[in-house]
Design brief:
Oligomer: homodimer
Order of helices and strands of chain A: HHHEEEHEHHEHEEEHEEEEHEEHEHEH
CATH class of the largest domain in chain A: Alpha Beta
Number of domains of chain A: 2
Helix content of chain A: 25-40%
Strand content of chain A: 15-25%
Largest interface: A-B, 62 and 62 residues
CATH architecture of the largest domain in chain A: 3-Layer(aba) Sandwich
Number of strands of chain A: 16
Distance between the termini of chain A: 52 Å
Chain lengths: 443, 443
């Protein structure tokens, strides 16, 4: 099916839905609302997946690419068809508003993103946007008007560094604007291309009293829910990230003539350090993770004992104190390894500006209560991956809902979340929105 | 000092030496021969080091470079000044012949190379050529004519793959001719440039009954003699080399969301394998060495658990059986590591065509006896590095003499062998030549 052909079908769907557009009405209890439609969500996922579709069954819908433009146009037309009023801020975030009955009430914000990594999948981001659309559909069908206005948000360029949410927080750096992503466009030019206005990007910043709350639904990007056969993850927060570039130095020497007991082999120290990092992260109580993702030996010839090894260490946890504790243990092990092997090990901290971002405890409770009311299984868990929610915690009381990703796969064409799992997530989102609307945060 | 200016000084030296050119005479006992002149050897090292001299005090005299051409021209003029008749074979090896008194006796061959690695030092190769020239000087000064003809050889392109000696063995591969080295020239073009004739390179092959013996003197390229404060190494043979490219495969996954106990981390397996290789080589009886010189993790991002690691393993020993034994132990450890970490480890053997090359036991004895007669300290030892001698063992009874390199440094501008150490080496070479000439191999 060509994209043009698909566009016609979408237009037909829009007309069809338009015929059943509900009239806005006063509050009704949550229990009168239908369950989310797995079929409708799956159809929207499939429709969106056409934009940037690749041969592997995933998408290349990197922010600012033609596919991103087309995907956003599709979503905007769907949002309008849902009766929402759409605006795009200077950072190219899409906001779609549904009016509330109380004119002085702050909007409740919810959403996610639709851009992908290169060679990405169909669920990382879109699941949250489509669940948010499903919530609007359910409210429309149930003829419910909330007290608070509702705003559905589609953040711009999440995968390229949380660009849209950083701008909302007022933390987008000027130096980021010239960074070019796989679309071939810079963040500055790309933002303008998709409807933003980079020269006025400061206007995208929102005050901390603007929104009543923010809720993001997202696939887990890990295998915990899938493995434990749980429906919902109530996210405690987004982990902080510590990143160090490590240089191990020994003495490069002839691999044939230098006796085994006369070597200062940087690679032996690097291997010991890699295992020490793994052991420390495994044996320390808690859910911290530590990864050596990058390593290279120099000069890098099979017949030369490495004189230098460059490697990375990344440590993540919900608490900065735990990151600091694991790092201190790694540093201590490194000193011992370096001395024993007559090598040196230097750590250089890389500023990734990613401190732990706990969600609001009241929002966790609201999501947990909604999940329980629906009879869905769940666990409270951290998010090991970064999300726009980590910026939003600085703007509004923030909650986050995970749905399982089969096999924990993400950033891959093989990403898959079942329609039923998505629908359960949308149910929880819907209930959480209504609970916030009913004043749960003020209790 | 410019090279042109230096050329004039060399010319003066040649004339000066020419005045004292001895008349060839009949045999005299070795004890009547003067000791080698450390000053003269040092002067020649310094003179040769002008060609390709670099800012670090070493040389860039890669085979086929202008510096190689100039260095060869200097050596040829010196060889002629010593009264030798010079020819260049089709593989661009330089042979300089001193007549013997017995017209039916086979020549005794000795020498080494003068080409360097990029960023090389002044001693790896030149020490052996200059020691050979010193031996001729001593014979000339002592008015000695040997029974056997003597041939001093300067092998072409040693550092680029033993090109000259492989051609003499008849083992230079056609596929090697197009290989381009740091000179920017191919082995084929470069050989022609420096006086060879690549279209007739088969003519460089020598019969196994052509030479009475071959002796190479070389710096150790390891730190054993220097550390043990020994004058001479009697080389048992050149070690064989086994080289494997290893692929470790796990499962690339998100470094933030994948729990520590749920990872299939290729880097953890690669680190364990690196340490297993080191441990096996250290703990196995003998002098084998094993090196992981090259390693890289993929995809190579700090926040992604490596799904694949590529690494090299090199094992060297004087005996093939020992290489096989160490490799078998490594393979067994790898199977255990792979299974424990739910990863796979594949080995691909790389053909480096470098089987162990033991020197001739009679030649070892001749060199050892010469060393003892001179009162120099020594040890019998393998060569961990490759040398032209490893090809020559297939052509003639071969012996090899090591002199200490300070700190074991080689392939570096910091290479240094003291003039006194070089002179002691030349003394041993001289005595060994005379012993072979006196029929020691026939005893």
């Amino acid at each position: 099916m060509t994209i043009a052909g698909h566009g016609n079908i979408t237009a037909c769907l829009v007309i069809f839905i338009g015929l059943f557009q509900p009239v806005m009405a006063t509050d009704k209890p949550a229990d009168t609302i239908e369950k989310a439609s797995a079929n409708r969500m799956e159809a929207r996922i499939k429709a969106l997946s056409q934009f940037g579709k690749n041969a592997d069954g995933g998408v290349d819908r990197v922010a600012y690419s033609d596919a991103d433009l087309q995907g956003r146009a599709y979503i905007i037309s769907e949002l309008k068809a849902l009766g929402l009023s759409v605006r795009i801020d200077a950072a190219a975030n899409i906001f779609a508003r549904r009016a509330g009955s109380n004119l002085s009430a702050k909007p409740i914000l919810f959403g996610s993103h639709i851009d992908s990594v290169p060679g990405g999948g169909n669920y990382d981001g879109p699941t949250g946007v489509i669940a948010a659309m499903e919530a609007i559909d359910l409210l429309n069908a149930a003829d419910i008007q909330t007290s608070h206005p509702l705003e559905l948000v589609v953040f711009s360029n999440e995968e390229g560094g949380l660009v849209g949410s950083l701008a909302m927080r007022g933390h987008l750096k000027m130096s980021a604007l010239t960074v070019v992503n796989a679309s071939g466009r810079s963040i500055g030019d790309g933002t303008n291309l998709i409807g933003g206005n980079i020269s006025d990007v400061a206007s995208a910043k929102v005050d901390t009293d603007k929104y009543e709350a923010f809720i993001e639904l997202h696939i887990e990007q890990g295998g915990i829910l899938d493995e434990e056969k749980l429906d919902i993850g109530v996210v405690e927060g987004i982990v902080g990230i510590g990143w160090w570039d490590v240089t191990v130095e020994g003495y490069a020497n002839h691999g044939g003539t230098t006796a085994m007991n006369n070597r200062r082999d940087a690679m032996v120290s690097a291997a010991e350090l890699t295992l020490a990092i793994n052991r420390i992260a495994l044996r320390t109580d808690g859910r911290q993770v530590a990864t050596v993702g990058r390593i290279q030996a120099f000069p890098g010839a099979p017949n030369v004992i490495p004189g230098r090894v460059e490697m990375s260490i990344e440590i993540r946890d919900l608490k900065q104190a735990k990151i600091d504790q694991v790092y201190a243990a790694v540093e201590k092990a490194a000193a011992e390894i370096a001395a024993r092997n007559k090598t040196s090990i230097r750590f250089k901290e890389i500023d990734v500006a990613s401190e732990p971002a706990p969600t609001d405890p009241r929002m966790r409770k609201i999501i947990e209560t909604a999940t329980q009311a629906l009879g869905y299984s769940y666990r409270i868990m951290p998010s090991g991956a970064g999300h726009d929610a980590q910026d939003m915690v600085h703007i509004a009381p923030t909650g986050m809902i995970f749905v399982p990703s089969v096999g924990g796969v993400s950033h891959s064409p093989n990403e898959f979340t079942t329609p039923q799992a998505m629908a359960r997530g949308a149910d929880v989102l819907m209930r959480a929105i209504l609970a916030v609307d009913a004043g749960a945060l003020e209790k």
